[in-house]
Amino acid sequence: MSIIDELQSLQAEAAAAIADAADLAALDATRVAYLGKKGSLTAVLRGLGALSPEERPAVGKVSNEVRQALESALESRQADLAARALESRLTAEAVDVTLPGRRRAPGTSHLITRTVDEIVEIFAGLGYKVAEGPDVELDYYNFTALNTPPDHPARTPSDTFYVRDLTGEPTAVAGESDVLLRTQTSPVQVRTMENTKPPIYILSPGKVYRRDIADPSHLPQFTQIEGLVIDEGITFGDLKGTLEHVCRAIFGSDRRVRLRPHFFPFTEPSAEVDVSCGVCAGKGCRFCKGSGWIEILGCGMVDPNVFGYVGIDPERYSGFAFGMGAERIAALKYDIPDLRHFIESDMRFLRQF
Ligand SMILES: [Zn+2]
Asked: What is the arrangement of strands in the sheet containing 257-264, beginning at the earlier edge strand?
């Protein structure tokens, strides 16, 4: 076989191998096998030196043609395979934009948070500012400065969570600490009166703690919203007018409000406030136990004794205070029969609001 025949047979063999290469790696292996340093065509070309000078031009021309033909075949097959690889990758990684998206449930405020916000908003409209204080409180602010006598039942360890006193100060209750979890947000009112000159118009929402077993109408931790007004010439009429406005803003303009005499250490005179039952419109039903009224808050005129603790002149100033439970307000507004729902984190309940 002449060397030219050999070259042509190599070209045919290589062209078939290039056409058969299934992917870019196989194509590269084919290139190395024919055109690489140890490739078949390279080996043939090395043998050119042994040819006679007459033979060399013809063989050289054919070998160049073969090399060029193979290089061009490799190039075209490579472009072909690269395009195919890209296409299959695009197919594999394709995003189906017609698929429905994954729905994420956005977080929302707890019903109690929203109830507090709503009530704060109503009072902000009347010019009240929000005041805050510590949850862990001194006996002095929680009881003494609020005119609560030392033997008052609320001060017993069965009603109040006492915290071990780290100050080393003498305890206010025999055998007990004078540090406690506040049972009301009224300490915030005392702290405000200590630091602020009247006029004072504040609302103090916050968590309070009592040693109650959780049941449909009690929680050991709940949210209280208290208000305090101190100014010149404040009367019981101002208190009544304010609460009537607020109750209607919370429950609706068709509601009626009544005050019943009551006793609180901090206020004198004191009253409990009822709002007309929304279920029976005041006619009497099971929800209001037949009375047509539902108790929603306690209130009264600030006892002049309290002014004595905080250095406010009772001859010049008078004021009123009131307090309500956010859980109770929300339960009445949304007909929730059991306060424990608010602290159980059951999404089936929470999603209803
Ligand atoms: Zn009723």
From this structure: 129-130, 200-209, 221-231, 318-325, 293-302, 267-276, 257-264
